[in-house]
Amino acid sequence: MHAPRTLPSAETAETAAAPSPRTTGRPFTAPIREKLAVALPHEPLLRNGHLLAMSSLVNAALGAVFWVLATHWYDERTVGLNYATISAATLLSTVGQLNLSDFLVRFVPAAGRHTRKLVLACYAAGIACSALAAVGFLLLVPRIAPGLDFLLTPVTGAFFVAYTAGYAIFALQDGALTGVRHPGWVVAENVIFAVVKILLLAVGAALTLFTGILISWAGALVVAVLVANVFLLRRAVPRHERQAPQTERPPRMVGYATADYAGSLFRMAAYSLVPLLVLNALGPAHNAYFSLAWIIGYIPYLLATNMGSSLIVEAAHAPGRLAQHTFRVLRHSAVFLALGAVAIVVAAPYVLSFFGPGYADQGTTLLRLLALSALPNLLVSVAVDVARMRRRLRMVVGLQLVLCALVLGLSHVLLPVLGLTGAGVAWLVAQCLVALYLLIWRSHWLPRSSENPS
């Protein structure tokens, strides 16, 4: 960070304190951390955002390997149904974890000696509510998603509930690790998750298990959650409790969480309900084509999300620099997003062809439209994060509500007419309309240089 008085990131401090090569007991990860320290920006705002983005890119690359193998080892119908199941569980876990991952990013930096209590309370709420959401979904499967009726047996149903609850913890631990300024561990646990997932996929394929894809995700989830939380709760949280100031009070935090949760439901509904719309409108095979295009097209979205998380953490440590950090994130991220969008537009048919000719034929235009939609999404995503930091919670909810309504409404209308391309058009048009509003009325959300958010 440019301001000399702000606290250094925990990753930077840990690297600086690493023992010399001659010191016995030197961690085996020290060379990797030293190389990252040289390659990444020294400014914590960008450095931590880059680490979070690196986590997303590594996860996406290994995820692509996973789905290439899945499409070769399983038929299109099986891939489509398993992906729809995973999408449903992701949505339900998001509903159940009450958006407490973003809540932890916002409030852990200033939680002080109450950090462990805050993290564990969020975990408990996430497990309980996610399990209840999963049970409710299973009761409604015959009406809202009849294609997923294989989940209604006792064994697969219990498995689905456990997976949904575990995925809530997986999301919450990322928020906690980001809040304590250890984004490097977000990279590590996502690598663990991806690698174990691929290994278990091979086992499931060898055993010809119809639910092998879902089982591989669940097994990898268990490993990643255990490893990340050993570090988080035994090392990172105790250190943070000793160093971080306590400035936030529970009543204000609860009010914030309630409103922010309402907004997050709309955002995740837009992300997770479109696959179900595709499944119901076009069938399992087209849902498989959509799923792979969405996984790749969502990568630029993750860059905006990750930089926004870093923005919130650094603004929590230095509230007076929110305006400076906002413009820094917008300028810095726009360049990378533009380059990434151009690369995806050019490479779309070649990338999708790795999954099979049907994926390239059906998903190329969709993927290109999704990549272009990431450009206006940067403005939308940063505006939501700025509103969170300024406690403009009506704007937080309103922006995500409008985006959700536009995406789902347009997808519902356009899918029967344009096929999979309709989903891409829906995302691009929705993002452009919301971004246009933010550009015209930028004074409503952009902070002034002298502003200090309460």
From TrEMBL:
InterPro entries recorded: Poly_Biosynth_Transport (IPR050833)
Low complexity bias locations: 8-21
Membrane-crossing residue ranges in chain numbering: 51-74, 80-100, 120-145, 151-172, 184-207, 213-233, 254-282, 288-313, 334-353, 365-384, 396-415, 421-440
UniProt KW Membrane keyword: yes
One GO CC term on file: plasma membrane
Compartments where found: Cell membrane
Region Disordered, residue ranges: 1-27
Keyword terms of this UniProt record: Cell membrane, Membrane, Transmembrane, Transmembrane helix
Membrane topology reported for the UniProt record: Multi-pass membrane protein
Identification of the protein by name: Polysaccharide biosynthesis protein
Protein source organism: Streptomyces chartreusis NRRL 3882
